[in-house]
Amino acid sequence: MTEAKPISDIEAHLGYWLRTVSNAVSQSFARSVEAEGVTVAEWVFLRMLYDVEGIAPSQLAERMGMTKGAISKLADRLVDKELVSRDAKADGQRGQMLMLKPAARQLVPRLAALADQNNTMFFGTLSPEERDELERLLRLIARERGLSDIPTT
């Protein structure tokens, strides 16, 4: 009779530790931005718009790795919050451009500061060299696995 191979302990898996840290980082940041009246997905949307004067929903969907329908729903919520406007394309072509309203232009830097604080809270214990190495390794894994969608949850 052959002996059964022992199963690995859950803590022996790097995925366990990645998920543990990722959950804590994500939940902490979500609480911070929700206190400012937006979700993480809305923050990502706003941050993507911050660097452009306006963008077509289809282009934003492509950049964020989301469906046009998901972008439309996010845009609807942000229009309702008076943070985003939908304007007709200036060149007379069909379609709309998504643009930040002044309130969002003021909000995005505050949310970015929260992201920076969250990053420091969780990764400040690492030396700059360790942070660089962790980022390098995570980027390597993401590149090798073809992971390019922007995380919004």
Can you walk through the features of this model?
It is a single chain. The chain has 153 residues and is mainly α. The chain has one domain: Arc Repressor Mutant, subunit A, CATH 1.10.10. The chain is built from six helices and two strands, in the order H-H-H-H-E-E-H-H. It has helices spanning 14-34, 40-50, 57-64, 68-80, 102-123, 128-144, and strands spanning 84-88, 96-100. A two-stranded antiparallel sheet has the order 1-2. Helix 1 packs antiparallel against helix 5, helix 2 packs across helix 5 and helix 3 (57-64) crosses helix 4 (68-80). The relative contact order is 0.13.
Largest pleated sheet: 2 strands, antiparallel
Q: What is the beta-strand fraction?
A: 5-15%
Query: What is the fold named in CATH at topology level?
Result: Arc Repressor Mutant, subunit A
CATH superfamily: Winged helix-like DNA-binding domain superfamily/Winged helix DNA-binding domain
What structural category characterises the helix and strand content? mainly alpha
Number of strands: 2
Please give the radius of gyration in angstroms.
20 Å
Percentage of helical residues? 55-70%
Return the string of H and E elements.
Answer: HHHHEEHH
Mean pLDDT: 92
- How far is the N terminus from the C terminus? 48 Å
Q: Class in CATH?
A: Mainly Alpha
